[in-house]
Every structure is written in C-alpha cells, then in structure tokens.
Amino acid sequence: MEKKQLLDRIIECGIVAIVRGQSDDLILKAIEAALAGGINVIEVTFTVPNALQIIEKLAGQLSSDFVLGAGTVLSPEKAASAIDAGAQFIVSPNTDVSVIEAAKSRGVPVCPGALTPTEVVTAWQAGGDVIKIFPANVMGPKYLKDLHGPLPDVPFMPTGGVNLSTAREYLENGAVALGVGGDLINKKLMDEGNFADITNRARQFKQIINDFRGVSS
Predict the structure, then answer these.
(1) Based on the structure, what is the number of domains in the chain?
(2) CATH number for the domain including 113?
(3) Are β-strands 113-114 and 110-111 bridged in parallel, bridged antiparallel, or unpaired?
C-alpha cells in the first residue's frame, strides 16, 4: 500500500494495539484476539524478544487489510530493519529526526513521540505523519485541546495509559487515533490464556471509535 493508504487505514481503525510480551506464541494469539475484535492495526514493540522475527512472520501470513507497525524504534538502523522485516509504519517514544528521516526515505508513515509543544513542533516539522503524545496520561485528555489551539493542523495519537474510561475524551479533544497497550493486549490476560477477554476489549474500544464518529457497527 501507498503511504497515504496506510495512514488512512490507521486513522480509519482509530486504535493502534500495542503489543508487548515475552512469549512469541502468546503474542501471536493476543494479536489474533485483537483482530477478532475488529482492531486491525497492530504495533509490535522492540521491547519484545524476537520482535523482528514476529514482524516478519506476521507480515507473511496476515490479510491485506491488516496494518503492521514497529514500535519503540530508537534508531534509524532499527527503523530500516523493521521495514525490511515487513513493518508498514514506525512508532517511537521520542522525537529523533534521524528515525523520522529513515522512515520517510522508505515511504512508510512515522509516528514520533512528543509531549511538550516544542517537541511536537520539532516532530511535525521533521516530517512526522501522526504525532504520538506520550506519555498521554501525565497530561490528560484536555491537554490535546490546549495543543490544538496553536497547532490545529497536527494530528495527535495519545499513547500511554489510554483506557476504556478515557478513550472517548481523548477523541473529543482532538485525537485522530489512540495508541492502546496494557488496557487492550493485557499481559495478565495473555499469561492466563484469556484471549476472549482481549477480543471483548478490542470490540469495546472499536465501539467507542464508531460511536464517536457516528459509524454503524
């Protein structure tokens, strides 16, 4: 897919499911559970052991409507290796211009992390496609509205502590998508093998997106 198509898919889904864990098998099952719940944008972080192998495996077996990204990308070398493995978008917890440029050079969307207005502007001017506001829970949903005042054209994806109770408020304050980790692909549920609950949570998050946008389920 072209870069614009990928961005459109990410924003259309509205939720980027962030995957962390230690077991390849549990991670893959958790991803399948999220997909079953209607969330088809998945971010596999580099904090996961064998992250590149998991990305490569997922890229080779999942359908064309699935969008696969790499997260916690801290260097241009990691960005390149993730894209080579099949990642279709790059996410970082920080603003590193070299990582942004590495993703841009390969034609894939990049979501650099930022918190302060200076970091947001730096990330946006360097070519970030969607700016990940991280850690979002430190400032809360209304912080997005404050940022949007002087920066109305910057698309935000709050990440960090986003949950079912706060998701709608982040959207109401200007988020184009939400990065959701532990409240969706939850380590305890993974360890218990409770993938049905992960699917249920995915459906609830997707319903919040649909309700906010006035989209029928």
Answers:
(1) 1
(2) 3.20.20.70
(3) unpaired
Please answer whether residues 74 and 48 qualify as being in contact, where contact means their C-beta atoms are separated by less than 8 angstroms. Answer: no
CB 102 within 8 A of CB 80: yes
Residue range 140-196, pLDDT digits in tens: 999 999 999 999 999 999 999 999 999 999 999 999 999 999 999 999 999 999 999
CA distance 101 to 99: 5
Select from 189, 193, 141 the least CA-distant residue to 163.
Answer: 141
The one-letter code for the residue type at 172 is E
Domain span including residue 128: 3-209
Look up 43 and say whether it is catalytic: yes
142 is catalytic: no
Considering the candidates 29, 43, 77, 187, report the single residue annotated as catalytic. 43
Residue 15 lies in a domain: yes
Peptide bond into 141 cis (omega under 30): no
Tell me the C-alpha to C-alpha distance, in Å, between residue 78 and each of 45, 51, 157, 205.
11, 11, 22, 30
- Within a domain: residue 104? yes
Of the residues 78, 104, 132, 206, only one is catalytic, namely 132
Each residue of 102-142: pLDDT tens digit?
999 999 999 999 999 999 999 999 999 999 999 999 999 99
